[in-house]
Amino acid sequence: MLATAAAVIGGVSSAARADAAPDAAPAAAPTWADADSATITPGVQMYTEGAQCTANFVYTDAAGDVYVGYAAHCAGTGSSTDTDGCSTASLPLGTPVEFVSGGSLVTSGETLGTGTLAYSSWLAMADAGEDDPETCAYNDLALVRVDPASVADVNPSVPFFGGPTALASGGADAGEQVSSYGNSSLRAGASALSPKVGTVLASTDGGWSHTVYTVTPGIPGDSGSGFLDADGAALGTLSTVALAPLAGSNGIGNLSHELAYARQHAGIAGLALVPGTEPFTPVL
Length: 284
Fold this sequence. Notes:
By secondary structure, the protein is mostly beta strands. It has a single domain, classed as Thrombin, subunit H. Helices cover 9% and strands 28% of the residues. The chain contains 3 helices and 16 strands. It has helices spanning 121-128, 133-138, 255-265; strands spanning 3-4, 7-8, 45-48, 51-54, 58-60, 66-70, 96-101, 110-120, 142-146, 177-181, 195-203, 209-214, 226-228, 234-241, 250-254, 272-273. It is globular and about 40 Å long. The two termini are 29 Å apart. The model is unreliable at 4-8 and 10-22 (pLDDT under 50).
């Protein structure tokens, strides 16, 4: 899904920073599958009641549970133009989510594993009575707890680029290069279009969102996919596609802000981004 900032890049359907919180995975993190054989990684397709989005990064907690992130609007029940997470309804926690390969308009693809919705920034903001306009508009992160039977298939490395090297500590400057890996089912398996390289154009005043242009923009189904900064750190998550004033640009939520909010409201002790096992290799 994607919302167009004008709307949410959805599936095929519808500020605080992490100053003191840890950026690295705790010692309880499991042994990861080899990157070459893992089937659940950043960039995998995720289906929630028929809506398809793309995974951003892998996370874990103090108990050793494993999570895969995507956009909160991927589990939203509003229309593709409903981008206010504080007022748009969402599916409940515990909703089943499938990790899929090869999903398209003509096939549901192959199920690689399963999980359940464990955190939604949209649900958390509604519960907290959040009323900050920028937070409501751009805090768009959800976490899916990977079922124990599927954890052995997980690797935290971003396909093609490697990384993330860490959680980006702040935002990004205009002109900075970014990298991403989208996996929309609308591309019908054209994997050559999944890796994206682009440039940051601007950021919101509160730093919750960055506007980016990439070679081949994010489209519905790419929603939730992760963005790496020029050093390979996890910068943001794809949330919106703009119709105006910069048609074809995308809005990405600032992951350091989104993860800080999750740490405060998710009730998940020790929640942390997991760095990739593969080194980051930028496209020059």
